[in-house]
Each structure stands twice: as structure tokens, then as C-alpha cells.
Design brief:
This protein is of the alpha+beta class. The chain has three domains: about 55-80 and about 230-350, no CATH class; about 90-215, Sandwich (Immunoglobulin-like); about 360-460, no CATH class. Helix content is about 25%, strand content about 45%. It has five helices and 31 strands. It has helices at about 1-40, 160-175, 290-300, 360-400, 425-435; strands at about 45-60, 65, 75-90, 90-100, 110, 115, 120-125, 130-140, 145-155, 155-160, 180-190, 195, 200, 205-210, 210-215, 215-230, 240-245, 245-250, 255-265, 270-275, 285, 310-320, 320-325, 325-330, 340-345, 345-355, 405-410, 420, 440, 445-450, 455-460. Strands 8, 9, 11, 12, 13 and 15 form a six-stranded antiparallel sheet that branches. Strands 19, 20, 22, 23, 24 and 25 form a six-stranded antiparallel sheet that branches. β29 and β30 form a beta hairpin. The chain is elongated. It starts with a helix and ends with a strand.
Amino acid sequence: MEKRLKITRFQISSSLRRIGIALAILGIILTVFTMESLAIKSSVPEENARTVNVAYAQIIPCVVVEKNPVFVGANTTIGYTRTAVAVASVNITVEGILAPNLLYNVTELNSTFYFTSITKELKIYVSPVSHFQYSVYLIDPGLFSKMLYTNISSSPFLVNYTYLQQYSAKLSQELGVPSPIISINFTIPIGNKILTPSIVLNPTGGILRPVVLNATLTRMEVVPIQGYRINQLSVPQQLIQLVDVKLFTYPSNWKEINYTVLLNGSSISLVATKGSITSPEDPVSLNLTALYQMFNSVQEEIGFQPSFPDVIVKYSMFNGNVTFSPYVVITQGQNGYLSETVENNTINRVVYYTVKKGDFNYVPFLAVMGVLASLALYLYFGTEVKKVDARLQAFRKFVRKYGKISVLVKDELQMPNYIQVRDPKELVKIAIISGAPILVDEIAMRVAVKFQDQWYVHIF
């Protein structure tokens, strides 16, 4: 019994040794095989490719409209107009002194017209001046101008209209011409200004209607025309005075930006203007009414029917080795609204690269793997909480700061294609420009804005 027990223990011990040796040999074989595989793989260069977004552009909608109670925005100057502004004026009125007659019960009448047959004198009032000079002329335009008399007077003063009529009739009969016009010309000082108004007496069909001319001294001034600048296109076209074409681009630091405005119709195309700007967000202001008129005048000259062309703004942007040429198309819709689209607005470049590794060294591999494993364990268990805390703190700080323009979403955002930005403040800028809210995903700790059917995302 004791001998059988010793044999059994020896057999068990031998079996364990065999199993241990087999496992050790298997481990060595697997280790060597793994290291040899890595060595072979490391000696073969790897070729890869990826697509890089070099540049893109988005429209910033903006129009300038005439002032109205519905579409209100920031005050801006649309243009300028010249207008006459009064600097001095006098008030001149005429009353008639009548002969006894059957029509009126008074001998003094203040009216806009008088019957010449019963009008003896004219009483003329001039205010707000005390003294002035006046002269009485008989005038036949293009033939003669005869002064009858001149005088210095105060207001009111009388003019003998019967005498003027008789003198005018005799002169007309003598010269064989129609009765000349009676003109009373004034020279009136007001402050440091001199006014030269006149009263024209030219009866027609026995009716006298005194006409006062040049009673106001004016000067021409340039006056700005004010309107509203609003960041949308959903405005009736009849209110639009200017269309400001602006772009939001990546990158934004272009060294040179040129543009050309084209009018593209079904029959002809015209170059309207060219220019340059310092930033894509600088407005290219277009007066569509003037552009349409210019286009149609050319069409009529060559025998085409008037039409509304597409207005195209072509850009040429240069930045080092990158040349970016987006263009904006403005069309007039049937519903009375404009549409604005940007074409050729993305530059993608495929980058090919080769990864070539050196000869594999086993000892450093094992040492480095051991150190990296230890370091990974330390970093994972020692710093993961701190990293999570730092990300969470930055995420919560952003949400608190921009909570007024942010919306918390319950479900995870579905974004098949998006552009990731480094700085979350870029999303704030896009949200302000487009008017879209910032969507907040608490689970993934990321924020996003959708602008012109394109997602822009920052992951904390």
C-alpha cells in the first residue's frame, strides 16, 4: 500500500513537470513566433492614404432693406441723395384793392385770383423784414425787359395795377406784340443773406393770379439714406436695397482676395465689376436693381428681350500654396424672394504617406513593453480620474457660459459627416452668425452646431 502510494505521487509529480515544461516550451514558441512576426512586419513599409479638408466656404446671408416696421435690423447707410435745404425765406402775400362792383361787398379782398376789370391796386405784404427794395418791370421773354420804376419801401406797400395795365397795353400796341408780363422784383437782406424773390402778374382771360417766385433761399446738401442691415434672405425683394455677399471660410487668413461680379443670362454674360477685399467676411455690396437695368439695356441694344440674369460673385483667394475659387450665385425666385447659394466651396486633398520601421530588437521590445505596461497601468489607474475631471470641468464651464444659446439633447446626436473644430469658441461664432443653437450632448461630452447642412463639432 505504501509502495503504491509513492509510485502514485511520483507519477503525479512527473506529470506536473511535463505539463509545466510543455507550457514553458509552448510559451517560448509563442513568444518567439510573435516577436518574429513583429520583426517581419516591421521590416515591410506601410502605405496609407487619407483625405484632408484644405479649405471650405459657407454663406453669411445679409441684405440691406429700406426702413420698414416688419424687418428691422441694425441701422446702416444705403446711399446718399442731394436735397435742397432752406437757409432763409420771406413770406409775400398780395391783396386786391377793388373798384365798386356788384360782385363783392368789400373794396379789399384777399384771394388767390382777381378780376382785372375791377382791380385798381395791389397791396403787397412782406415779412418778417422791415425795409427792402423793389423794382417793377415789363417783360417779354426773349425780346425785352423794361424797368418802369424802383423804390425802397416797408411792408405793406401799394402798386397801381390800373396804371401798369394801361402802360402794358400801350407798349403792346406800339410794338405790335402781346401784352408783356408785369414782374415786381425784390432785393431783401436777411442777416448775411440776400433774397431776390419776385411777383409775376400775367393775367389770362381777364383773371389775374399773382405768382410768388424764389421766396426761399436754399442750398444743396448731401443727405444719407438710412436702412436696416439684417442677416437673412427671407425678405420681399421690393424692400431690398443692397445684397451684401459675405463668406465664412476656413482658413480665414488669406493673403489676397479678389472678386468679379458677373451677370449671367440665357443669351449673354457681362462682367459688371471687379475688386478686392481683405477678408471673406467683408461685404461685396450689390445693387441688384442697377445691375438688372444695366443688363437689360445691353440686351435691348442687341435685340434680346429683357430678363433677370443670375448674379455671380466669383472669388479668387490665395494663401501660400492654396488657391481657393468659390463663387456665389444670386437668383430671383418666382415667389418674390432671392436665393443665394455657394458653389465650388470645398477643397479636399488626398494625402499618401509611407510608414517604414527599422529592424526589430527583441530586448528593447521586451523592456519597453514592460515599462509601457507599468506606465500604462499607472497612467490608467493614477491619472484617468484626473483626466475625466478636467474634461468634465471644461465641458461644464462651456455649458454654463453659453447656456443661453445652447440646447441640451436627450439622445445621442446622429452626425454621419462633420467637421471637428479645435476651439469650441468657433462654434459660438458660427451659432451667432447663423442663428442656430449649440446642441449639447452630455453623455459624449461634445457640442455641435448645424450651419448650411454641415455639422461642426467640438469634443471635450
